[in-house]
Amino acid sequence: MKTIDLTTGQVQRVIVALALPLVGSSLLQFTYSLVDMFWVGALGSDAVASIGAASFYIMLGQAIQSLIVVGAGIKVSQAVGRRDQALIQRYVRAGRRMNLGLGLLFVTVLAAFGQALIGFLNMDAPAVEQLAYSYLLVSAPMLIFSFFNLLFARLFSAYGNTTTAMRINATGVTLNMILSPLFIYPLGLGVVGAGLATLVANVVMFGFFWHRARVLFDWEETVEPNRTDYREILRLGFPMATQRVLFTVISIFLARMIGSYGTEAIAAQRIGLQVESIAYMMIGGLNGAIASYTGQNLGARKVDRVHEGYRVTTRLGILYTGLITLVFLFVPNVLIGLFVDDPTTIDIGANYLRIIGISLIFASLEMIGNGYFSGLGLPKIPAMISIVFTVARIPLALALEPYLGIDAIWWSIALSSIIKGLVSALYVRLMKKEVSSLAEAI
User: What is the pLDDT of residues 53-63, one digit of tens each?
Assistant: First the structure.
């Protein structure tokens, strides 16, 4: 399996070459999400709302799992930069073992408390809640395989090899796109069918990832991780996991507020999030690229390349999200109307895209900064920024709600994203002189 050296070559070409497969993976997932939303949307707003409700807890699991993914990804990328094969093997094995334990624990919690978790969203629609719970039960075992797929993709990226993950993701997405309509309609499984299709696709992807990972990481070696390796992964992963878990928990509380406006509002946000992911395809790819790039170059003590990598990545992010902002501002109704024909859902969703669109450039600054600091081994900085201003969304939404109604929730998200992006960019400037010291300390 090919390993790419990110410490040499023209910086923009290296960043783009690393980011494109990640963007390709996101594009594949986005394509599947769109197609799936078409199929589920045909079942009505209640079906869309049920999947939207269950998805909050799926995202919560993935947020918790970032404790392992982020920490292992940072340590492996830095070890690759140092060319230390024994250290690489230790961190890979430690991450794999912790990942399994965490996945089994979270799935058990979902199975035991799923109904209570769905009920917390206060949808006041028993039929929708039952659909959401059914979807959650099917999705729970899927998360074990999804956890490993996410971990392997991050570790491949740490090696500079993002193409393999894209190919495996393409296989899973294609399979999902074939099975989803088959399970939903001819087999008559509805929402549960969508969940089963995702489960099967993740199992297949896991098989491919496992096979390719054995080749790359040489699991037949006898190198064993020690307690310090586990602690290092947890230490580096904890800030980002805390940030992502808090982000998801805040989203769940906001979803509870949204639920008071009816299932149309929940469906509108669900569709809005899917359309919004157009922007995060590129931003997410740049986030993963700058994290691996920075980690390798820091490990190789090439500080000038670290700085240039951030500048190049930021320019690309601003250009792309600026174009998406224009689309969201001028044709939001058309985008939402592709999925549902309910006027209320379309109106709420269009307002969501207009308001969120204003913040996309700043969101790109935050996510790129997130990847940059992760590569430096300083995940506490983006975590602190995110925690402080994400928590502010709830009081801000409550303060604005009497005047703006449901739009207050969208504005609380947009305003906090703007502030987070600006603060992240400021921290990058303030930390510029510290990078040399960090390189020497590795």
Answer: 888 888 889 88
Provide the number of structural domains found in the chain.
1
Query: What is the phi-psi region of residue 22: left when phi exceeds 0, alpha when psi lies from -120 to 50, beta otherwise?
Result: alpha
Rounded CA-CA distance 72/374 in Å is 11
Half-sphere exposure (Cβ direction) of 405: Cα atoms closer than 13 Å: 6
Q: Assess whether pLDDT exceeds 80 at residue 419.
A: yes
CA 307/CA 305 separation, integer angstroms: 5
Alpha-carbon span 415 to 399, nearest angstrom:
13
Say if residues 48 and 128 touch (Cβ distance below 8 Å). no
Q: Is 194 strand, coil or helix?
A: helix
pTM confidence score: 0.72
Tens of pLDDT, residue by residue over 202-228, are 999 999 999 888 877 766 567 788 899
Average pLDDT rounded to a whole number, residues 114-123 = 84
Report yes or no on 5 lying in a domain: no
Residue 352 buriedness (CB in 10 A; 0-12 / 13-18 / 19+):
buried
The single residue listed with the structure tokens 């603060």 is 423
User: Does residue 364 have a pLDDT over 90?
Assistant: yes
Q: Return the SS3 of 162.
A: coil
156 in helix, strand or coil? helix
Its sign, for the CA torsion 196, 200, 201, 205, is positive
Is 1 a member of any domain? no
Cβ neighbours around 46 below 10 Å, total: 18
Whether residue 92 is contained in a domain is answered as yes
Dihedral, CA of residue 152, residue 153, residue 158 and residue 160, to nearest 10: 130
In a domain, 365, yes or no: yes
Tokens of 312: 């190049």
- Angstrom distance (rounded) from CA 385 to CA 261: 30
**Over the stretch 145-193, which tens digit does the pLDDT of each residue have?**
989 998 998 888 877 777 888 889 889 888 988 898 899 888 888 888 8
Nearest to 63 by CA among 388, 394, 360, 386: 386
Q: What are phi and psi of 306, to 5 degrees?
A: -60, -50
Boundaries of domain holding 123: 11-441
Q: Are 411 and 271 in contact (CB under 8 A)?
A: no
Task: Give the C-alpha separation, 236 to 68, whole Å.
Answer: 9
Residue-wise burial string across 229-249, b where 16 or more C-beta atoms lie within 10 A, e elsewhere: bbebbbbbbbbbbbbbbbbbe
Query: Are 179 and 142 a contacting pair, CB within 8 Å?
Result: no
